[in-house]
Amino acid sequence: MIQVANVTKNYGSKVLYKNASFQINAGEKIGLVGPNGAGKTTLFRLITGEETADEGTIARTGKPVVGYFSQSTGEMSGRSALEEVKGALKGMDELKERLSFLEAKFSEEISDDDMAKYLEEYGELQSRFEHMGGYDIESRASAILTGLGIGPDDYNRPVESFSGGWKMRIALAKILAIQPDVLLMDEPTNHLDMESILWLEEWLGQYQGALLMTSHDREFMNRLVTKIVEVANKAVNVYSGNYDFYERERDIRREQLIASARRQDEMLAKEEEFIARFAARASHAAQVQSRV
């Protein structure tokens, strides 16, 4: 679905990564790990197109819908919590209005040609509305809000009346309601209590799309992901398996690199010793020759 190929990203003189490559396949659940400042959030922004790579390409197969949950709520005001979540499905209101308009036309006296034209448009719009989840958006938005700890008593509360942490839950609910093909999540468990974390884990476990996420909750990540993308030391490395597998494999690779470096040092030391002995012998031979 998304192919990151030979991407290099710099910030001024600082290199975040060089020739980074990995791919996000349909249905994959991937953990994105690495130290603070390594470039994990930048990688999200490169995938969404909010930033551009200095070198390399990020290509999408088809036209996957990408949803990005960041650590920003964006602008929220003037709507209830429920309406805010429902409004995440852009174009839904326009579709509903057009469908209502066409339904009204069907009760009017119109020509056969107009009726055929309206029926064809109605069928196309109805299919699109159904694909977007328009017929169950109310129940879906309500279920997601409830799962994230915002119950029916608060559905109609103005979003601006919620604290920052609760607004983050609403922002998360908006992304989940879209049900995108690719879900990018930057620390989704922040601001959530244990009950909401367990609900989110279950929701993501049933989610059919591709997932790329960061999380300081290693157990949460460990139970969900089957692949790890590590951003560290100006490079991107890919590991097949969950977080536990990644830690074991990373330590093995590190030990192999250390052992390889040690062998190289030993070989270099032997070569230097040989060169030194050869140089000493050559010097001694030259001295003997000069005395003859």
pLDDT averaged residue by residue: 87
Number of domains: 3
Q: Which stretches of 5+ consecutive residues score pLDDT under 50? A: none
Q: CATH topology of the largest domain, what is it called?
A: Rossmann fold
Q: What is the CATH architecture term of the largest domain?
A: 3-Layer(aba) Sandwich
**Element pattern in H and E:** EEEHEEHHHHHEHEHEEH
The largest sheet is: 6 strands, mixed
Enumerate the strands of the largest sheet in spatial order, edge to edge or round the barrel: 5-6-7-3-8-9
Measured between the Cα atoms of the first and last residue, the distance is 80 Å
Structural class, by secondary structure, is alpha/beta
Strand content: 15-25%
Tell me the number of helical segments per DSSP (H or I, 4 or more residues long): 9
- Fraction of residues in helix: 40-55%
Shape label: elongated
Structure description:
The protein is an alpha/beta fold and 292 residues long. The chain folds into three domains: 2-65 and 180-241, 3-Layer(aba) Sandwich (Rossmann fold), CATH 3.40.50; 92-131; 249-289, no CATH class. The chain is built from nine helices and nine strands. The chain has helices at 40-48, 81-86, 92-106, 112-131, 137-147, 164-178, 194-206, 218-224, 243-291, and strands spanning 2-11, 14-24, 29-33, 55-60, 66-69, 182-186, 210-214, 227-232, 235-240. It has a six-stranded mixed beta sheet, with helices on both faces. The protein has a three-stranded antiparallel beta sheet with strand order 2-1-4, with no helix packed on it. A hairpin with a 2-residue loop joins β8 (227-232) and β9 (235-240). α3 (92-106) packs antiparallel against α4. The chain is elongated, with a radius of gyration of 29 Å. The relative contact order is 0.15.
